[in-house]
Design goal:
Helix content: 40-55%
Radius of gyration: 32 Å
Largest sheet: 8 strands, mixed
Strand content: 5-15%
Number of helices: 16
Length: 593
Amino acid sequence: MAGRARQALERRIAAQMRESLEGEAATAAYNQLRNLSENFHYVEVECGLVSTALNALAFDLRAAKKKLDAAIEDAQTEKLTVNADGSVSYPPGGDKVDGKTPKGGKVTGSARAHESGAPIDPGNDANDIADALDRQAGNQHPNPYFSRAIEYADRIAQAVQEATEADERWAPKLRELKADDDLNVSDKDWIDTDKDTGGVRSGAKDYLDHIKRPPGDGSPKENAEWWKGLSEDEKDAYIALHSKAVGGMNGLPAAARDEANRTHLDVMHAKYQEELKAIPEEPLVKYKTIPGSGGYPVQVFTDEYAKWYYKYNDRRDHLNAALDGMEAIQKRFDETGGKNHIPEAYLLGFDPEKNDGRVIMATGNPDTADHTAVYVPGTKTHIGSIGGDLDRGERLWMESNKLDPNSKVSTITWLGYDAPDAIPDARHDKYAAAAAPHLRQFLDGNRAAHEAATGDHGHTTLIGHSYGSTVIGDATKSHTSYDPHGGALPVDDIFAAGSPGMQVGHASDLGIGSEHVWAMKAGGVGGDDWWVREGGRKVGLGGDGNIPTDPEFGAHLVKSGVEGHGDYWDDETTALRNQAAVITGSYDRVQYD
């Protein structure tokens, strides 16, 4: 219910408000709706944990009940009576003693002690002794029903104990799954949620073990088939207890990955905020002057500042950059609807801890889209700068939707790799080579999820900016653990903007046919785009010395109408319109250079 309420707020109410209302009152109302949406999301996550905990408790109780029912049935088959208190009555029987048949009676069982599995295990020793005593008593008793009654009474006691232990294990965990009694979801609440998740995960081990596990090192198609085979409760359990793993699993539905990653986003945002608050203030006095070589004074860090700097500076910068990226992601969530009718965003990948961070975000659902564009940014891109790249993805969607309003379009910003931090780093192919298999896996997953949702695959365009096009070139030659032979990428068109080289000498080497490879450049000789392209050629990023904007490369050369290396996604530009034409398969609308 909380999930449906959140979706209604984000997709309909808030979206329509942004579309039709303006002014301070509208802004204030929208901010209240955003806070309410966050509250609903928190409740949704907590409800998911409660639901999974109850399902795990029910699973444990069902296992105990199954043992109890089996013991009762077996006892009754042997003409024994199970009493309400769990004791077992047995009838007279056996050879006569002094002319009399041994009397019947009643026995009460005992549960087995816990066994640790250690080399010296008191629990195991106690069980062995108890079993031996039961056997001895049964062998000595003149009534053969006695030993059978002891066996069934012990089985009944064991089942009851397992049910009691399940109740005792889950009762405190369920009591802990409650929020503060205020209306504000704080960072502390989200951090507590993460702790609650760990508690439920440890308690639900048996429940999770009975659910079919995801395929180890499986292909995206195998992941999609695994997910499709789970019940709704089982899917909810995996999202609730393994949000990071589900969020990063290629082949799963966009909606499932988005739900999991939003939870991971909120938890990490809270943790990063709290960690940042705990870092001491930067010392005001940073430098001191000391005599240098030749008697000239030099400035160096003060002892206090040096101690702070080497302990906290890099981590503080990372936290600030990651929080900037998280705010950019939230901003994209908030832009759904509005006057441009922006569709819902789907967070398909999120990891702020992995090097410079990972963010994969779609505008529109790629699982059901007729046309999907995957945009790979280049050098200097990191989680802290992702806002600009998310804006580019949004502009690609708006221009594509304008060109083909009757089709469903999804545009994805893919920062699933460590981009070079600076131009000198981009002279090397190592970043692209490391990124290539990850891009291939994501594209395979995108196709698998689309086929699972629709039974078919849509039209996909892969767009690389600058070094991002180098990543694409390497991806066409890459392979994966589930497909060691590689082969053509599951895309229909490849578009390179301001490319320094794609590690292949000709468009046909990209594997989809040169007629589906497109390239454009910005500005003239001496401009920043020219330096990127020619610099890439000089350091060998282009195969056989060719880069995509060379006629010899064999790609379609299209107009851009822009001057700067970063201007390809500016509004109302030929560059943006040409990309939209390829994205929507409107090849007759492309303007050639």
